[in-house]
Amino acid sequence: MLSILIPTKDYNCCKLVESLHAQCEAASLTHEIIVGEDGSSSQGLSMNAAIDDIPQCRRVIQATNIGRAAIRNLLAKEAKCKNIMFIDSDAVVEHHDIIAKYTAALQDNEVVCGGLYHATTLDDIGCSLRYKYEKKADKLRCAAERAKNPYDKFSTFCFAIRRRIFQEIEFSDKISKYGHEDTLFGRELQRRGIAIKHIDAPLLHSGLESNSVYLEKVRTSIETLVLVENEIESTPLLQCYRKLQKLHLATPMAHIWRHTHRLLCRNLLGKNPSLTILGIYKIGFLCNIKNNIK
Asked: Cα–Cα distance between 51 and 59 in angstroms, integer?
């Protein structure tokens, strides 16, 4: 039994639902697919209206946007099966055995992560920043690599979990904007001693944003990181900040960032953005936030 839960906002996920439903039917799996419309516009609601006509599929419609964590928690409350599977709405199913692999792994495991990947070519040069970042990360996204640091590599893009366990933890209501739901949830699983099984059952991530939108997401994710820092304890970016702090370089870095961030943005918003500059931008932005809240 599997409840597949897909949060969305103004994104057409009909094909995703159709693909998942077909795999569940082929496996003779008792299932339901619930799409959570989180403040979608009338146009967005119209795009996904056909989902309600697919057997075992339905939508839960929130008139106002309640946020990434809250919509996922709401979907879990709506679920009826003992196992639930969260999938982001910009996922694409390119392999015929995704559901079979997840259900097999769920027989002996309480939390399962299947991974994600990105297209081999970039169609829109305006999305090059996110694409470069993700393609570099893809090199370490096979199950064997993720299993080396199972909690750090936990991703909410697509994962399955026993419903009773999720209801004990849920996504933190501290997080209403973009970033670190997966980090915080992974840490909570670790604290409770709940193992994560990483498998190779990846979905294609198709929703690459423009460079400007992605850079705004980067800033929002760092603001979220500061908000939940005590619960997360450590990330590579926080480790870098703490090293600078010990060397008394965090405040100078904040000053440098304030004087150079426009120049850094010129590269990051251009046609050939540098991941090195993105790293400098991130740590500078974090130092600036920290410096302002002292």
From this structure: 7
